[in-house]
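Hey, I was hoping to borrow your eyes for a little while. No rush at all, and the record is pasted right below:
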Amino acid sequence: MSFKAVRVDKTGAGQTVGFVEAEDAELMDGDVTVRVTHSTVNYKDGLALSGQSAIPRKFPMFLGIDFAGVVESSDHPGFKPGDEVIADGFGLGETHSGGYAQKARVKGDWLVKLPAPFSRAEAMAIGTAGYTAALAVDALEAAGVSPDMGPAVVTGAAGGVGSVAIALLAKAGWSVIASTGRASEADYLTRLGASEIIDRNTLSGPARPIAKERWIAGVDNVGSHTLANLLSQTRYRGAIASCGLAGGMDLPGSVAPFILRGVRLLGIDSVQCPMGPRLSAWARLARDLDRGLLASMTQTVPFERVFDVGAAILKGQVRGRVVVEIGG
């Protein structure tokens, strides 16, 4: 039986991306077949949907870097038909067909059983962005920084990673400084738990090698000058978790914060993250993320609108999280 999917292909003229009616024969290798019910739109998805990025590296392929669904068949000992599962990372939407399809076949070792109390829709309201935020908060705690040492800063605060990071940090007792380019989102960020809001332009220019100390911790998903400014203003023995590059892949800063203040830069990889830290992050989300707050930062759209949302997220026009209803 055919199913609906967003497929990317490559021709001499470039990439073509669009909806297709696909067949099971187009599914990639794996030992678990899943009926996909929900996905989401992360920044990386927006890039892939544009047809002008290097995100997809195998063609043809179904896009979507994460999904939630129900197992239809399994040759993996850890999963059986009827299990509710989530998947993100491991090359989904990049080298292996992902969640923008009503059916997926993947390795069971990539799957996580849906954590209570979340529904599949809530799991995708969290999605890769929220899971990445949880990894970042876990990494900051492992680095030994704590709320009694000073505030934490979050950049790209109104986006998916930023929204969940603020909620998790506030729940853990942090005073959170939210950096955003959208002053109109001040009330939204305050409801999530931010205690101070700053204009992102104060962090977007060239950074001084070392600047006045402001925060002990941070979650950055912008990169470039913004990350350099965060580091130059981090307090002695503080730490910044870096998990995104919306502003650029470069880091035009100085070694001064590292050698004069002992600042730590923590790289957050959500794609190949081992299952141990992955499960720990989802456990934190299940324990600490208020489902009411999650609902307040989430909008739901039908599968047909995924291209519209992909274009909007690249323009910085999406607040919080977007759930995409893929199938029944």
